Amino acid sequence: MSCEDPVIIVALDFPDASRALDLARRLDPAQCRVKVGLELFCAEGPAVVRALGGLGLEVFLDLKFHDIPNTVARACARAADLGVWMVNVHALGGPRMLEAARRAIPSGGTRLVGVTILTSHGPEEMAALGLGESGARVRGLSGMCREAGLDGVVCSPQEASGLQDLRGADFVLVTPGIRPEGSAPDDQRRTQTIAQALASGADYLVVGRPVTQAPDPAAALAACLAEVRAAGRGAVLGNGQRGRL
Ligand code: C5P
């Protein structure tokens, strides 16, 4: 038996396809998904997304669209054409942009989620941007995303517990800002461990540098998967028994 809805999304933030695919080939699609962000997409474009799909991995295309409604809608349609599992737009693009994105990606196919407030923003950035307190702002933006019919939001795990009334099978919480106990926050500010994020009610956890920059990425990912299992989510090794992560 394998995990059918993997919790961990590995952020393949690499400068080229060769390094991304090196790690990807060691991943078990039953245990994790992958995320293609700005760096890898700028370097390699849609080809790397297709290559990852060819490995059987489900891809979260994290390009965080934020533009006028027409432009975002058309970009969303092209992203969905790639057959990815999930795409995102910035909730700060506002209701009309979110609704246009939703119309471009009908429910039931590629999942469309809204980025609320970047997990790298701390109180200073929030003040400098005039966005107030992050918890309240994330909640407001999450409500806006739900209203526009999106499939969920990207938020900090710190905010997940306060969004449980919005959460459901049709509205998921995706949380970057995951840091194992004692590891460096890097540029992230609103972080939690895997166990904390799951206890807070996050559905999917994005993990990047703690895995990709680890001396042994495979071991680091195995530790993450073990933490997910220990929290009673994801469960069983399944295909991992074939020697893949
Ligand atoms: O390396 P790290 O675990 O911090 O990577 C987090 C990943 O999640 C990065 O690829 C980053 O672009 C992405 N992300 C984020 N905060 C958001 C949305 C996406 O950190 N709000």
Task: Explain the overall architecture.
- It is a single chain.
- With 245 residues, the chain is α/β, with parallel strands linked by helices.
- It is built from eleven helices and eight strands.
- Strand 3 (59-65), helix 4 and strand 4 form a beta-alpha-beta unit.
- The longest helix has 14 residues, at 134-147.
- The chain is globular, with a radius of gyration of 17 Å.
- The model is unreliable at 235-243 (pLDDT under 50).
- The structure holds cytidine-5'-monophosphate (C5P).
- Residues 11, 13, 37, 62, 115, 118-119, 154, 176, 186, 188, 206-210 line the site of cytidine-5'-monophosphate.
List keywords for this structure.
TIM Barrel; binds cytidine-5'-monophosphate; disordered C terminus; alpha/beta; 11 helices; 245 residues; eight-stranded parallel beta barrel
SS strand fraction: 15-25%
In order across it, which strands form the biggest sheet? 1-2-3-4-5-6-7-8
The name CATH uses for the topology is TIM Barrel
Give the tally of structural domains. Answer: 1
The named CATH superfamily: Aldolase class I
Ligands, deduplicated: cytidine-5'-monophosphate
Query: What distance lies between the first and last C-alpha atoms, to the nearest angstrom?
Result: 15 Å
Q: How many individual helices?
A: 11
**Structural category:** alpha/beta
Please trace the helix and strand order, writing H or E for each element.
Answer: EHEHHEHEHEHHEHEHEHH
